[in-house]
Write a structure and sequence with these properties.
Blueprint (H helix, E strand, L loop, with lengths): L8 H83 L2 H13 L5 E5 L2 E2 L8 H9 L14 E4 L6
Parallel strand pairs: 1-3
Antiparallel strand pairs: 1-2
This protein binds zinc ion (ZN).
Amino acid sequence: MDSGAVNSAKDLANLQHEIGALAKRQGDLEDIVLEIMERLESAQARVVEMTARRDAAHSTAEAEARRDAATAEIDAEVAKVTRERETVAVVIPADLMKLYTKLRQSQGGVGAARLFQRRCEGCRVELSITDLREVRSAAPDTVVRCENCARILIRTSDSGL
Ligand SMILES: [Zn+2]
């Protein structure tokens, strides 16, 4: 227009109209680009959020799997120990079983303890020379008990007798 290449007033008006239309079109396109960028940012934020949630769910599932495995292991151990206890319980004389049960209740769940190197493993007290002599002279099938905590003493080759 400034160069004078467009001469007629009509051409000039057409060109100005076209420029106006292009400017409007450019403005519209810029608005569309802005909107798309906003949607992209929103989508990216959502990806970050969903990734974090997926990772959290994954670690929760792993923890649950570990817990379930541990529970199954404990259940199996309980079943095994219960079977062993039942096997042992049938061969123990009734009066001894009664004494053991009573002691177990009064002594924090431990009714019998190993006598290990002259020490009661129930209360950790070392037996006196007199008590050791008594235990030593007792018949193998005699029930011997700790003078300190009253628990049944289990004699083994490591008892220090
Ligand atoms: Zn004891």
